[in-house]
Amino acid sequence: MLQIKSFTFNPFAENTYVLYDETGDALIIDPGCYEKQEKGSLFDFVADKELQPVKLINTHCHIDHVLGNAFVRSTYDIPLWYHKEEEAILRAVSSYAPNYGFAQYQDSKADHYIKEGEWIKFGNQQLLCIWVPGHSPGHLVFYEEKNRICIGGDTLFKGSIGRTDLPGGDHETLLSAIKTKLFILPDEVIVYPGHGPETSIGEEKKNNPFVGKNSSV
């Protein structure tokens, strides 16, 4: 059975996720851990559950989602996967990380570029990769149909959507992508976002002020 553990890391209150099942195989998604205690809490959870991380995945590559990439990749000797359109976004992080107080940030590089429609497999699980651009050019979400869960990154939040004023962002693109890529999923799908609490596709279709049925857009 698929299990999800969430951590909230760094001053941006970013949600990091560990997905795992009865085999012990695990995915680590968007590691935002930077401080020693943050890295320690992730490491201790993996050790306590006797998990074997097999892949490191980024929904997208803004600074708050990649601070722990190098730590996770080297600690578990696992490959880093993200969309090719995020390459420039990730390369830029080193140049501005010190300005945000992350002077010890370590860069990381892709071992594999994810394509839309690709499946990420681990243990007895598989996630469908769905391209949802707008917050960033190569933003992906990961959908697990059997358990009706979606790791949404910074696309759709409870009562909100991802910001689009960062380099590579586009407001209309994000609105369209949410409506055509996410809102076609079943209403009962639970969205685990990059910040804040979980929500559901049905809830946001009904009440989200940006893309819900009563939105002005």
What does this structure look like?
It is a single chain. With 217 residues, the chain is α/β, with parallel strands linked by helices. The protein has one domain (3-207): Metallo-beta-lactamase, Chain A. It is 25% helix and 29% strand. The chain is built from 6 helices and 14 strands. The chain has helices spanning 36-48, 63-66, 69-76, 87-96, 171-182, 201-207, and strands at residues 3-9, 14-20, 25-29, 52-57, 80-83, 112-114, 119-122, 125-131, 140-144, 149-153, 156-157, 160-161, 190-193, 199-200. Strands 1-2-3-4-5-6 form a 6-stranded mixed beta sheet, with helices on one face. A 6-stranded mixed beta sheet has the order 7-8-9-10-13-14. A two-stranded antiparallel sheet has the order 11-12. It starts with a strand and ends in a 10-residue tail after the last helix. The mean pLDDT is 97. Keywords: Hydrolase, Metal-binding, Zinc. It holds the Pfam family Lactamase_B. Residues 196-217 are annotated as: Disordered. Its cofactor is Zn(2+).
